[in-house]
Amino acid sequence: MANHKATKKDVRQAAKRRERNKYYGKTTRNAIRDLKALKTNAEATKEFPDVASMIDKLAKRGIIHKNKAANLKSKLAKKINTLAK
């Protein structure tokens, strides 16, 4: 690492961003896990929009790819629809 003020600042900013992104990612993964654990369609249907919103925010922030976000939401929707049967 160079000893420039700007480089040191960039390292600090990157560390801060990395921590923030890690928090958002982990929180979303936990929400997905909790949604998958639900057994009734009514509960899952109620929780799905919040989780889908969290996934969309990750994609918007560039933490995950937009196609991965779409795949996650699709799989969760399929799982919720199977609970209805």
Automatic annotation (TrEMBL):
GO CC entries: ribosome
Tree of life domain: Bacteria
Signal peptide positions on this chain: none
Transferase is among the record's keywords: no
Keywords: Ribonucleoprotein, Ribosomal protein, RNA-binding, rRNA-binding
Statement: the UniProt record of this protein carries the keyword rRNA-binding: yes
Disordered: annotated segments: 1-21
Protein name, entry field: Small ribosomal subunit protein bS20
